Structure formats: structure tokens, C-alpha cells
Amino acid sequence: EHAYWRDVGSVDAYHEASMDLVSVNPVFNLYNRDWPIYTSDLTAPPAKVVAVAEYGAGQVADSMLSAGVVVSGAYVRGSVLSPWVRVEPGAVLDNSVILHDVEVGPGALIRNAIIDKGVVVPPRYRIGYDIEEDRGHGLDVTSGGIVTVPKHHVLG
How far apart are CA 42 and CA 24, in angstroms? Predict the structure, then answer.
């Protein structure tokens, strides 16, 4: 490809563009050396995936993990994790975008979501499994079914 352009003027479009990045053959391939990325470097350790005794190694598939991310005995599928995200044992993330400094508690279940910076997801909390429950917790749900959690929002 010689160019990539996508209108991300809505939350649903932003989510779709993020999911483009984790597809098997993305149109916008961040690993294409002919398309250099011009940005400031983040000083952080590389992402790490670790096993936890009772949960085992967990699994990460079709996802992007940024610098400083730690996934401990959790399951991450089709998701984009920004710097310094921590995912605790038994948590499941599916089809989601998790922004900087989010902590996902043990056993939390998250799907079809965009979680903004600085959110702490309590243990066993569910996001994206029951739209009415999500709305009852003050979360927005787009027409496309994407649940959004605002920056520094307190859950639970």
C-alpha cells in the first residue's frame, strides 16, 4: 500500500481502525519499514507476558502490546494495549482498546470496549457483556455496541 487513510470521527470508527491494526494482514502495517513512524520514544521496558500458578501462562493472540505492559496469567485477544497497562490473573480482554496506565483486576471480563487512561477495573468486573448493566454504571455505549470508559473513571 502507498497510503492509509481512515475517518476516525466517531468512537465506532476509532475502534474499527484500532482493530485494523491487529488483523492478520493489516492494511496499515506498523511493521512496514517503508512507512516510518515519527513519534517520541517512550522510555519503558518491553511488554511482558508471565505465567501465574493457578492461571498458567494465559494467552495473547492477535493483539498489540506497548512498552511497559504486563499481562499476568490473563487472556488477551484482538486488543490494543497502550503503555503501562497491567492485566491481572484470570482477566479476559477481547476486541478492546486499553489506553495508558489502566489496571485490569483479577478475573475482570472486558469485550468490545475502549477504556481511557488511568482507569482501575476492579476484580471480576464486567464490561461489554450486558449493555444495560454498562449503562447502569454510567458508561456510554455506541450504536455499534462499543462500551467507552472515560479517563480516570471510577468503576465499582
Answer: 26
